[in-house]
Amino acid sequence: MTAPPTFTLFLVFLCSSLHAEGVPPTAPVAIAIHAGAGTIKRDELSSEAEAEIRATLEKAVRAGHAALTSGQPGVEAVRAAVNILEDSPLFNAGKGAVFNARAQNELDASIMDGASLNAGAVAALKRVRNPIDLAISVMNQSRHVMMIGVGAEQFAIEQGFELVDPSYFHTDHRLEQLRERQADEQANVKQDEAWYSTVGAVVLDQSGNLAAGTSTGGLTNKRWGRIGDTPIIGAGNYANNNGCAVSATGTGEYFIRHVVAHSICMRVAGGQAIAEAADRLIFDTLLPDGGDGGVIAMDPKGEIAFSFNTAGMYRASIDRNGKLYVGIYANE
Amino acid sequence: MTAPPTFTLFLVFLCSSLHAEGVPPTAPVAIAIHAGAGTIKRDELSSEAEAEIRATLEKAVRAGHAALTSGQPGVEAVRAAVNILEDSPLFNAGKGAVFNARAQNELDASIMDGASLNAGAVAALKRVRNPIDLAISVMNQSRHVMMIGVGAEQFAIEQGFELVDPSYFHTDHRLEQLRERQADEQANVKQDEAWYSTVGAVVLDQSGNLAAGTSTGGLTNKRWGRIGDTPIIGAGNYANNNGCAVSATGTGEYFIRHVVAHSICMRVAGGQAIAEAADRLIFDTLLPDGGDGGVIAMDPKGEIAFSFNTAGMYRASIDRNGKLYVGIYANE
Q1: Which of A326, B61, B151, B214 could form a disulfide with A224 if both were Cys (CB 3.0 to 4.6 A apart)?
Q2: Which domain range does residue A279 map to?
Q3: What is the pLDDT of residues B8-44, one digit of tens each?
Q4: Chain A contact residues (CB < 8 Å to B)
């Protein structure tokens, strides 16, 4: 079928007029972030603390969105958002990471580019200020996907990273959490992890590419050398333009066993809507098995899903229409 | 439809006569193992070396099969088979592991139980003789799925493992391989990994449960702290009774990006035949992307698939009819 000449002329006119405004017709961009999920209740969070959390979430999501609207690739937008969450002592990633059973901080992170399926992951870091940055370097500057521990820190030095002293990650409130937890364990008090505060971001960039990144200090009182789902590509983080982008937070062991991020993306690739795919994993697969937590997920059109089976998840987004959303509790 | 009385009587008689032999009617069991895949050619392998490899493969698959027929759970059959491959200096796992760039051996392994989806993984071990055993202990004796490095070795000591001196893993032929590879790198000779010799096993036990285990020394000349697909649940190893069991060997980075083991199992869960599911990943997904290697896979009925895009894969199986198969090259 050929368009009638008048209609074709109308289209030419329409396109010219749009360009004439000086605004290049850019593809939509979108970003969603999280900073953990758990059993938080409204009466446990002071209004000052809540305001600070909301402000930091907004700052992070705006930083990632600014990177996207300025044309930066998805991976750089993820970095911009996650860096702010890592640098804040409010969240369990970078500064503010929880302590392991030996009262040390061991940090994990991962990144994935949905266009190339290139990925980078790091684990058990003690001296890298922003683990997501090292994950990106592993992806871009090495032939490997995953590096851990002192070997990974050696790579960081070669890549020009300035390592920090391990004490950089020490915060009094996290040490207090560890001591309380260890006391509970000694007293055989049932230990529910109240809050899983991994941080992460999923984005759609101007080129139509998805990316996902996740960063964490892991579980309070975790064993020395324990690795959760955050640096496991497919479990806590995944991105594929033919599917979706996912960043997870929760009881990492369950997210590993069910390969949660990859499972959601395979469902979306098979035709399921992003919210439906995320909910099926979080509510039908994880919840009956005892897995607490949630995900942020985004499909190739920038459609966003927040799905969590806990009372709350620190989260924010700027959707493809530019609309900002910040949330903490389930019903908001 | 009701069976005619004479036919019913015949069935009763048949069942009685089977029981009368003293052989309880047991469910079928099956096992498949691998010990690496690569570019091996017939003229590069001496007949003595080939005979030794075939004999060790047969010994390992028979050990796993014996565990299955004696009623042991799948995980124990995997352990029996993999231990023999780890203890042989012929293969890149346990004794015989390749050297990393610092001329050290760093070993990885993982295990998964298809009934419970419980899993265990260990990485960057230097002093654990049989890494698959520690992966099983992590699964059964800890609340974590994955532990690495010295922290994992500390856990091993607590679990009663006798650690070996790192020199236990040193073999002259692997050191020679490292030196050749480093010389090639210095001289800028193009480096194709000729042989990826991870080992692994997949089994179906008498209770109808699948299990998968994988163990490796990784890549020759790998960076300190590099982790491949072997300890990544979903990438190099996966088992789910509602799907399949898979153990992989190859360029681990590609197996991680494509979450190969889990992808195969999701295809089988969706109705695809096991051989078809494995071939689609190995030939359609990995090969065009530059990923070399292969998998062994088994469905819940004990149907076995060997799939590899390299010239050969060390492999063996005893199928649900008790038939032994041992292979090295593609066309046998």
Answers
A1: B151
A2: 30-329
A3: 444 444 444 444 444 455 789 999 999 999 877 677 7
A4: 112, 117-119, 123-124, 142-152, 154-155, 222-228, 232-235, 238, 252-253, 256-259, 262-263, 266, 270, 289
